Amino acid sequence: MNSLKKIFDRDTWQEIFGSIQKNKVRTAITIVGVLWGIFIYIALSGSAKGLDNGFERQFQKVAMNSMFVWAQSTSIPYDGFKIGREPDLKLQDVEILRNRIPQIKYIVPRNSRGSFGGGEPANIVRNNNSGNYAIYGDFPEFRKIATQDIYDGGRFINEEDIKNNRKVCVIGERTASDLFEPDENPVGKYVRIDNIFFKVVGVLFFRQGSPFDSDSDVFIPFTTFQNLYNTGNYVGWLNIAAYDDADVVQVEQDVKQMLKRIHRVSPKDDRAFGSFNLGEIFNAIMGFAEGMTFLSLVVGIATIIAGIIGIGNILLISVKERTKELGVRRALGATPGEVRVQIILESVFLTIVAGILGIILGAFVLAGINAYTIDMTDFPYTNPTVPIYFVLGALFIMVSLGTLIGLIPAQRAISIKPIEALREE
Amino acid sequence: MIKIENLHKSYKMGNNTLHVLKGIDFKVDQGELVAIMGSSGSGKSTLLNIVGMLDLLDEGQYTLDDVIIKDLDETKAARYRNKFLGFVFQSFNLINYKTALENVSLPLYYQGIKRKERQEIALSYLEKVGLKEWATHLPSELSGGQKQRVAIARAMAARPKVLLADEPTGALDTTTSFEVMDLIQKINEEGKTILVVTHEEDIAKMCKRIVRLKDGVIVEDKNVEQVLASKYV
After folding, report:
1. Helix or strand run (H / E) with residue B164
2. What is the ipTM of this complex?
3. Could you tell me the pTM of the whole model?
4. CB contact under 8 A, A333 and B75
5. What is the CATH number of domain B2-96+140-231?
């Protein structure tokens, strides 16, 4: 097509540069309008992405599709049992759930005292120091669900500990500082937990995973916990992580439904088993971040549109100013089509230049914010980036709107008859 | 070269219709230098605009170089103008952000001639009007006479069949006017057909034929003894 050929013609661009250079102030003002729009767009959507990344970073140590499930008391009489029965979760439930619900990636039974699940906290003594701390009986897989970072030189509970009922423990960092001297490495030392000696094998770096976690928690092997507190097959609660592509809410329903069957609880009994779904909360927060992204897109694109309308406006005025010039061009043999292509290309060119400048400026500002917040670990803002398809999308919108808006002054330009244009003094 | 038969043109002004051209019959041969004279409102500019395809006729027939000019849409008119006609205006109408050379090469640009060739042609025409050294200057750096010579070079560059000049000396002082007329006469000597609209008698006398319009009709059409402008320069 003729007009397509024109776009790649050096002469066309020379004409456009000529007219743009001539109107420096107009060009500058026009560019600022769109530049500001795309700058806002880039800065906002980048920040939203930064917020998104920030939340993700804060949650990265927790399996984001995990949940706790525990037993409460029945609220509906069923199968010959009366209301108010308190079913106990058992170790064998774990295998059944794992086998029956394929969406489960990890399922870990836990017991505790002094925290979630009740009981007295453990009394822990070391030399002349002592204190009461929440104590947990855990399997090694627990680390798969809630990543536990252990200070150098230490480890978490392992399979051998479980198999041999070893009297080993992992202590929280506050427990370590309560019981040990500041320059002392607790690993390899012994503490007395409820009058039994345990060897400390690791100190836990504290990171809040669930609301019940504390920096003083003490972890011992699940089997050792069974023996120490005589809990048998009793399980305090289950930590369950679903596969990434599974619907966590559905998995939660399935697990509870299965537990009701195992424990002969009415399928309609909603109170027999309690649960806390981190995935759901995580989804809500990520939904908020997505909402922010969406909002920034809407605001950004609206600002871009405002800027482009500004371009159209200024080009319309400039067409009026250039009536005579356009008339001369027409008298010299410019067809309406050629005039139209020129005005539209001016519009598109200004839009693109402004857009690219705005993208660069926005990127600089994002880099600046990133440099400023990089040390603020508590602030959920990490690596603010704008996905390339956002940028390309914005450029596409700008080019198409620039063309459309350029049509208005272009139409105006060719609606002026050359004779009228020349008559105008 | 130009043949006009029974040309009528009227303008609507509100409820009134202004009948500007009332049946013009008019013929110009190859190589003529014709002055179209008349007081303001006589229709001379309208006639030139119709000949220049800047305006449409209401009635009659217009033939240019054996091509009947009819059913003109803007695109077709632009092509014809570019191919057949060169314009010289009273107010020069140079594009003020383009250099003399760029102004002269503009019609060639619309003819689709390549840049390098365009510049060569434009430069040769600038040389012809004696402004080769001013090629890179902007119109604002040129005097009135120089501007008009650039405009003539621009009109000539497209190698038109007919050169149309609308009051080419209207904005110039006497000496400069004669310089411009001298140039026009020289171009005419090379065989170019030229129409000059003017209301100045001395300018008209420098043409070979004078056509007088009054109230939309031709009242006089005579060949004259041409006064050479070079005598006054």
Report:
1. strand B162-166
2. 0.88
3. 0.67
4. no
5. 3.40.50.300
